Amino acid sequence: SAAEKGGYDHFMLKEIAEQPRAVADTLLGRIGSDGLLTLDEMRLSDQELRDVSKIIVVACGTSYHAGLIAKYAIEHWARVPCEVELASEFRYRDPILNRDTLVIVISQSGETMDTLMAVRHAREQRSRVLAICNVNGSTIPRESDAVLYTHAGPEIAVASTKAFLTQLVACYLVALYIAQVRGVKFGDEITQILDRLAGMPAKVEEVLATMEPVRALARSLADERCVLFLGRHVGFPVALEGALKLKELAYMHAEGFAAGELKHGPIALIDRGLPVVVVVPSPSGQRVIHDKIVSNIQEIRARGARTIVIAEEGDTAVEPYADTLIRVPAVETLLQPLVAAVPLQVFACELATAKGHDVDQPRNLAKSVTVE
Ligand code: G6P
Hints:
Blueprint lengths: L10 H7 L1 H9 L18 H6 L2 E6 L1 H18 L3 E5 H4 L10 E7 L5 H12 L3 E6 L5 H5 L2 E4 L12 H20 L5 H12 L1 H9 L3 H9 L5 E6 L3 H16 L2 E6 L16 E5 L7 H16 L3 E7 L11 E5 L8 H18 L18
Helix pairs in contact: 2-8, 2-10, 4-8, 4-12, 8-9, 10-14, 11-14, 12-14
Bound molecules: 6-O-phosphono-alpha-D-glucopyranose.
């Protein structure tokens, strides 16, 4: 009903709007008065976390994209080798799992069958399993050794939005906690990153306040058949997620690519007028990857692409090559997905609406896939 949707036309719009609150709720009570993390609720002892020699993140769909981003944070902050795998591939390939392997499964619903099977397989091999989950008491956290809940609140729309952002936050917290417990980072470094995380709800709010041009852009592209997404570093999984959202909601052919792979194939797809969304990393992060992606934008534009550029405020280098420029606030490099994913959600939602599709219940899809 309209009341349930809180005045929004669709649950998805409501859930997109709830993201600042959801992100704040995931952080709530997890940062102690000393500015450090307190995640004992997770039920993994410090010793267990110190003994971990490898992490494997396993998930499906949007949750898998959160996992891809988690890898960057886990390896950069906690310095533990990390792999990410689709749950449907994981157990059938006979993965190497030991007592000192930590398997992190990510699932909004906690009921996805492939992910649940991955939990069972990992535990049979005596690995520890940590679930990052949204639905309290669901099957996956019940069968795991440890759990960190995302506290996004109920997500009704089939296409995941606020659950995704909160999964990212939970992954950042786990990465930082491992860094803290293992002494890889000094307390003040952890505190500084946590401060920035605490500032993210306000940044997401800023993004939400500037979405009208993104909606107008989406409406103008309603007759397109195909959209490409490019990204680099954590912007690469964001590109994959942007493409997934467009497939799910607008039933359009959409692909995400690593920008560095452009010359190994995708550039052959560039045709006059083809919309290409590019997620640009912060120029204040690794300058070299920023500059390389700016060259990519130039290359595809020279071949006729219609460039839709998501770049941080103050990044003037992209201006000459962007047909449409979507600004997001400047944030810590690893945290950029929390702001960069939002315009892509709005974009897909508006395109689906323009095409007259059912935004909350896309054809052929289910909120939770409980069969293999
Ligand atoms: C379905 C949903 C997606 C979700 C995926 C994984 O495909 O439509 O939105 O990302 O399942 O679900 P989970 O509940 O395990 O995160």
